[in-house]
Task: structure prediction
Amino acid sequence: MRESIAMKLTQSLTFKAFSEPVAKNNPVFIQSLGICSALAVTVQLNTAIVMALAMTFVTAFSSLTISAMRNVIPRNVRMIVELSVIASLVILADEVLRAFFYDISKQLSVFVGLIITNCIVMGRAETYALGNPPVQSFMDGLGNGAGYGLVLVTVAFIRELFGAGKLFGFSVVPQALYDHGYMNMGFMQLAPAAFIIIGLLVWLQKSLMKS
Amino acid sequence: MSDQLKSIAFTVAIALVCSLLLTGAATGLKERKMRNVAVDRQKNILKAVGLLDSDQPATVVQIERLYQETIRCYAMDGAGRIVGGDSDAIPVCFYVKDSQPAAYILPVDSRGLWGKIRGYMAIEKDGKTVAGFSVYSHNETPGLGGEIEKPWFQENFVGKRIVDEAGSFAAVGIAKGKVADAITADRQANYVDGISGATLTGKYLTGGLKEVLLDYEPLSKQFRSGPVSLPAGS
Result:
């Protein structure tokens, strides 16, 4: 009995709307969207997680709002409406970060504002939210945000660990290792390192999907 | 209603709703945001005089209290006199200990490689020795020029001199490489170790620091010639 409920759940459209973009149709890996911010904010885990949360909030609620209005939005101004909704949510997220997480918002600088131009958000609004009911669109937004966030956090984990010997700002590489000549990879702190890591992750994901 | 009119009406309605929402959020959070900016400034001033360790996170309330107790800010005219809100006056803060200035703090606004470097430099009450240096905003390359925000780089400034051995103004700069190799023995007190791979950041910051220290040289001279008393009130 329990199994069949679980089966039903995992096969429901709502769940699929969430799970597909996390793994099988990941926006960063498969569609190569949102890479610019994935390079910039992944030097530390803290900033990557906050960025992922802000992004998930924006995609989920913009998809929900736009889907709820999809039958009344005049076709010729739909892009303007989508952008107004997305921009408002991004500014809202930025304001909240500035008020409550000032240090992190300082490190993220312009990148929260640049969520507006992140193709994932607009892409989901255009291709999914305009044609699907609100709950499914919300889940789709959530899934895309989570898929993006997963990549961000993975890249940040690798970059912070090897670039600074830290995780969440706490040193994890033991001093004894440094005493024996171990050194942090300064390259990991630079943007090209994120490119290389994302490239390797895409390779890994493609070969996993094949088998 | 024609389609065109409908589209325009819909867009206007959306714009109105969005702007109302954002105005509400911005107004509601304004006070908190202003406080954050002020506390960030205070934190960096405290760091410059060494009252705040960058490894130990302090709460907003702690920072505000410490700042209130120890730092007094004034304006200074070109001759180094402490004045009120004059138009050509430049800001200067003091670290006050037993109601006497123990150090004075200068805002640093320097050119960097990719953008402005902003921070604070504190000088001891002898008018010669650097008490500390902190950076609160910059656009330098992470891992290279970006190291200027790291404690290891900033700690090197502590104890350096802004005057040469004869006692005349020399400023403090960033060496190209290690001080011990790159600088002659009589000038080593005026330089800190450079950052490898960030020669230009060092060069610009050296220039910026010299400019700032020159601006405040009249005040430094007063400190060198004897104790400076603070005006009454704050």
